[in-house]
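call fold(seq) -> tokens
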Amino acid sequence: MEIIKNKDGDELTLCVEGRIDASTAKEFEDVVMSSIDGVKTLVFDFGKLDYTSSAGLRVLLKSQKRMDAQDGDMIIRKPNEVVIEILEETGFINIFEVEE
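ret:
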């Protein structure tokens, strides 16, 4: 997994490439949680994300709660069909703002 951070004012975009699973979720969480203080819009660019497990979904949910607490927005952008299917099957598609 590779994460590229792009900050523009109070918007942070995290481009995630590869897989978020049990072996990478902790790193993913550490990067996200250490980066979102003061951010008003958090964008996860999943254009190159191949897969996320439940461990990755947990980090996304935690991120959404943190953004809600700081009156911010969280967007999942460009998820592929596999990731969309995972979000649909878990019901998370109704929790997150997803831009295809």
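The beta strands are 2-8, 11-20, 41-52, 73-77, 97-99.
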